[in-house]
Amino acid sequence: MGTAYDKYAHEPFAVTADLAVLTLRDGALHVLLVERGQEPYKGHWALPGGFVQPDESAETAARRELAEETGLSDVSGLHLEQLRTYSEPDRDPRMRVVTVAFTALLPHPPEPHGGSDAAQARWVPYDTAGPLAFDHDRILADAHDRVGAKLEYTGLATAFCPPEFTLGELQQVYETVWGTALDRPNFRRKVLATAGFVEAVPGAARLTGGRGKPAALYRAGTAATLHPPLLRPTPEGRPA
Amino acid sequence: MGTAYDKYAHEPFAVTADLAVLTLRDGALHVLLVERGQEPYKGHWALPGGFVQPDESAETAARRELAEETGLSDVSGLHLEQLRTYSEPDRDPRMRVVTVAFTALLPHPPEPHGGSDAAQARWVPYDTAGPLAFDHDRILADAHDRVGAKLEYTGLATAFCPPEFTLGELQQVYETVWGTALDRPNFRRKVLATAGFVEAVPGAARLTGGRGKPAALYRAGTAATLHPPLLRPTPEGRPA
DNA sequence: GCTTTAATAGTCAGTACGACTATAAAGAGG
DNA sequence: CCTCTTTATAGTCGTACTGACTATTAAAGC
């Protein structure tokens, strides 16, 4: 709104909130998809989402959708972040729909459930997720890019982990999202050297159950950004 | 759009594109503001922007607005980037308006101009820019945060510079946006050590005119991200 | 010419990093 | 119960990067 704000008439738009809900299952990145029950794209898979209601912000609508689609009772602690808005005039064949896309990160994926509607919802490995309805392939790819980038300079990786986790689990998050293997001792050293990234759980609590030496437990730290950042190994045309 | 997409009726929204147009003038960060000519917030300053038209994406509308508001004939090479979308139900007292906010960076600020409408447009120092109409204070602050953060790990700073620039000018960008002084030899060393950030202009071209030793000229490089990044000195609770 | 100003070169010690090697503590299988 | 396998954790070493400096160069302004 500015000068032109008052100049042109405005056309009504429909506004939706779409979600790229990501999680780790069996060491692979998965995304929550729903099967569309109606035209257009009937029978195709799509990102969950829905219309923003008159009394809601897009964020509120996204959190409501997240609760509905995952079937989780408490969705308040989950990481939900606005990704970007997609507004190409022809992105929905029916009418003018602008969608505000969000990225949500889940620690434990709830089992596939019926969903709140007739359409079924399902966890799908990220690599086999396309092609999706509308421009959802692009939204999903953007979400993946964003998450991968934010792992470098924020503590976002802990959003994929339960409240208490081992450094091995944290490393798995990086390896899975980036698709690269990391050296374990070096990863450990960098994480512990970064102030505010993780903090040790006071009692000498240790997670056992698996094989090998039990690992120490950590909690997410309070730092918003990582200093120094945890850069991925040679992302693009990096020298050496 | 997903399951709930077809479940609820949708309410019509108005969609606008608002712009935080930033530039450097006299070593200070400035933002382009317009004075509102009508209610609500008549007489208040606001970010330029306007309704997205039926055949436009938000990006297209933003670029159109940018051309209109700055009066620049060629706005195609300028940096324009989606910031985020603001959709609180009560953010506009008249009706339900969702705005897609953009950040634009200008090298040479064009002089204040009449603007395309009755309202006047003006460059205002960032520090004295508030309070603005609607939620524009928040949008502007978010834009500043985003630009400051992106200076660290992208070559965005060159968007504030003319096609050919000196390292001194580039350093000014960092110092102005971050509000901190940087050591000149160290800045120079880091910039030149970062592959793809800047490239020297072939001919031993040098910019003179000011005082002191003439500086070598550089052009923006091709790297999308900076490796290693150019971190700001002690941004928050950084150890040491 | 001498001073001022800004660009550029170089130094040095502390830190971070990648690539390894080594040790410790658990479970699995005989 | 002993050994192998698995995973966590500790430590080493040489290179690269960083921040804090000092030094030199080349122009403009008295």
From TrEMBL, chains A, B:
InterPro entries: Nudix_hydrolase (IPR020476), NUDIX_hydrolase-like_dom_sf (IPR015797), NUDIX_hydrolase_CS (IPR020084), NUDIX_hydrolase_dom (IPR000086), WH-like_DNA-bd_sf (IPR036388), WH_DNA-bd_sf (IPR036390), WHD_NrtR (IPR054105). It holds the Pfam family NUDIX. Keywords: Hydrolase. It comes from the Bacteria. Residues 14-154 form the Nudix hydrolase domain. GO terms for molecular function: hydrolase activity. Belongs to the Nudix hydrolase family. PANTHER family: ADP-RIBOSE PYROPHOSPHATASE, SLR1690 PROTEIN. This is NUDIX hydrolase. It comes from Streptomyces caeruleatus.
